[in-house]
Amino acid sequence: MPLKHRHLLGLEEMTSDDLGLILDTATTFREILERPIKKVPTLQGKTIVNLFFENSTRTRISFELAERRLSADVVNFSASTSSVSKGETLKDTARNIEAMKIDMVVMRHAAPGACVFLSGVIDAIIINAGDGMHEHPTQALLDLYTIREKFGTISGLNICIVGDIAHSRVALSNIFGLNIMGANVAVCGPQTLIPREIEKLGVTVFHSINDAIAWADVLNVLRIQLERQDRAYFPSLREYRQYYAVTKERLEKADKPITILHPGPINRDVELSADVADGDHSLILQQVLNGVAVRMAVLYLLGTRN
Amino acid sequence: MNNKIFLLKKSHLIDPVNTEDRIVDILIVDGIIQKVTDSITADRNTTIIDLDGKIVCPGFLDMHVHLREPGYEYKETINTGLSAAANGGFTALCCMPNTQPVIDSASTIRLIQEKAKNKIVDVYPIGAVTKGREGNELSPMMELAETGAVAFSDDGSPVGSAEVMRRALEYVSMLRKPIIQHAEELSLSQGGIMNEGYYSTKLGMPPIPSIAEEVMIARDIHLIEYTKAQYHVAHISTRNAIDLVRGAKKKNLSISCEVAPHHFVLTEEDVCSFDTNTKMNPPLRSRDDVQALKEGLRDGTIDAIATDHAPHSFDEKQVEYTYAPFGIVGLETAIGLACTELLHQNILTVQGLVEKCSVNPRNILHLPVIKFEEGQRANITIIDPSVEWIVDMHRFKSKGRNTPFHGKRLKGKPFGIFNNGTLLLTDL
Questions:
Q1: Is residue A129 within 8 Å of A52, Cβ to Cβ?
Q2: Cβ–Cβ of B205/A112 closer than 8 Å?
Q3: Cα(B59)–Cα(B77) distance, rounded to whole angstroms?
Q4: 3-state SS string over chain B?
Q5: Is the model's pLDDT at B162 over the cut of 60?
Q6: How many Å separate Cα B21 from the centre of its chain?
Q7: What ranges do the domains of chain A cover?
Q8: What is the share, in percent, of chain B residues with pLDDT greater than 90?
Q9: B-chain residue closest to A118, CA distance
Q10: What is the CATH number of domain A137-287?
Q11: Is the fold of A16-135+291-303 the same as that of A137-287?
Q12: Which domains does chain B have, with CATH numbers?
């Protein structure tokens, strides 16, 4: 069964069948990653450009590994060394790269909707690796995969995303994806970091981390960005830690063990205490491994679709 | 058409000032109205225009246009901007001072007047409130007024400092000119690119809250109550902003406001396309705000319809939403949109429409009233209210093609204008 989409721009437009197909396909690739030889010839002869206009280490490496394990030819482009610093527009940059006959573009960009724009100006298949505060679909897919792997299902689970919801593409893609898969979704953070009318996206809002912990089966803890203090989003890291950090002490008050996810990189002992990050119920490194499998699945489904 | 004698047959004359609403023939000789009566027979040298089914009304004035010249001639020139205005059914416009150089000196006004001389469309420049539109020192407003500025505005930016605004209002109160405020509290809107609410949350876009507009208008209302100056809100866009103006009018303050067609036609939902032609400032608002704008038009809280015509080059809008400049062109779609969304939806009568596009803007700017009487200069907008058409940006006379309305079906269209002795028929 082919995927009904030509690009992966976001999870909002997906159905549960689409997401189920990607996750099932990822299971196959996850098995391949356990083999001594982790490479398959699926995308041999295809050229993929990783177009990263924002710094990213783990997402770019994860994509690159996925691409190479599918035997694609890979070209990396990062904004700091590029024509962008000379004032070239995204449209011109992308068209120039496309003129060299490439098949797929994986793009990370600071502007929401940048991938939608790109899909209108070039013909290549586009995978969104994060567009501003909008979507980060492969991150949400790997979160979904990791949750499903642990619980066998996503439907009916209580999943709470904790932290800076207002500036997080991870939060938004997770909300879309989790709702599509039938989870109960909540967000938790100070009101200044919760965007307006988010309830209309089908989420419950908690302002108390203890309430969120009492409710949740899974906490997806987001990285708190230090520069947010500049515009008075919260008073200080100390205050944030005091009231929103996910700590062992807080988790122990719950009547069941709570699974911990984090998209990384972690600010240890800010949003997440070190003992929780490295604890028995943390799936953080599992997420990283699953990320490669999920990205292989997406590349495979889009790259071989005709 | 350079004939000296024109006969407009079967014109449906709508003149709210003289409560005219009847079918007449109008004879114009050398640009002067010679006769307005039931039936006039033409002699040989007369150009006869059959206006059966068309509305003939006092010439429309768009009080909010960015002509871009001097400084940004690649976006628009005075010449192309005036052609667009004429094609869109306007006989006059006000040009905003955010040019390069800014209209903060008499010489820049004279430059514009020189380039706009002998055109079919009259140009009334708006001077900057502050030097360089920087919000700090007052521009030489007396000299600007004497040279021809009809109002003052730092449009594109607000007059942010309450102190500077207070002094500016006091100063212009001597001149019988309004200050036109681009009402935006920048500390609330900074970095924002669309209206704050469900859609900005869903699209992950930095938001511009409606309170950014409302807080500034609320402040200014206190300032005009204190200074007794004349004040006009540009491109009003939210329900609470309209309520504020409504309240200030009840207190008999000298306040007026305008709305741009895109604000009563589109909503924030349209941003979901990521089409950069849905990016403007103020941003497209909620459905409830659109409803409030229509109520404000109906009950007279909103005095004028003005386009905020903001041409940009094609490539400037062919970028990521975040980086695209704010604004769309409006001169050649305004009448079509107003007819479709207001006239045919029974929000405004024809008289109401003419008041918002001609009578009220002239009153706000203290320009002479247009009269359909013998011996008066003919200054006429002609509208075909019932023709259906599809907007085609390639037919625009404006250099700007940045419109979200390309391909939209509209009912009602400008038919032509007559001004300064010249007849021009719309080509859209």
A1: yes
A2: yes
A3: 22
A4: CCCCEEEEEEEEEEEHHHCEEEEEEEEEECCEEEEEECCCCCCCCEEEEECCCCEEEECEEEEEECCCCCCCCCCCCHHHHHHHHHHCCEEEEEECCCCCCCCCCHHHHHHHHHHCCCCCCEEEEEECCEHHHCCCCECCHHHHHHHCCCEEECCCCCCCCHHHHHHHHHHHCCCCCCEEECCCCHHHHCCCCEECCHHHHHHCCCEECHHHHHHHHHHHHHHHHHHCCCEEECCCCCHHHHHHHHHHHHCCCCEEEEECHHHHHCCHHHHHHCCHHHCCCCCCCCHHHHHHHHHHHHHCCCCEECCCECCCCHHHHCCCHHHCCCCCCCCCCHHHHHHHHHHCCCCCCHHHHHHHHHHHHHHHCCCCCCCCCCCCECCEEEEEEEEEEECCHHHCCCCCCCCCCCCCEEEEEEEEEEECCEEEECCC
A5: yes
A6: 25
A7: 16-135+291-303, 137-287
A8: 97
A9: B320
A10: 3.40.50.1370
A11: yes
A12: 5-56+374-425 (2.30.40.10), 58-364 (3.20.20.140)
pLDDT one-digit tens code per residue, B271-323: 999 999 999 999 999 999 999 999 999 999 999 999 999 999 999 999 999 99
Among the partner-chain residues A91, A113, A196, the one whose CB lies closest to the CB of B203 is A113
Which chain A residues are Cβ-neighbours of B200 within 8 angstroms?
195-196
The yes/no answer to whether this complex scores an ipTM above 0.85 is yes
Confidence (pTM): 0.95
Instruction: Give me the sign of the Cα torsion angle A52, A56, A59, A62.
Output: positive
- Give which of A133, A135, A185 to mutate to test B binding, by max B Cβ within 10 Å: A133
Please give the CATH number for the structural domain made up of A16-135+291-303.
3.40.50.1370
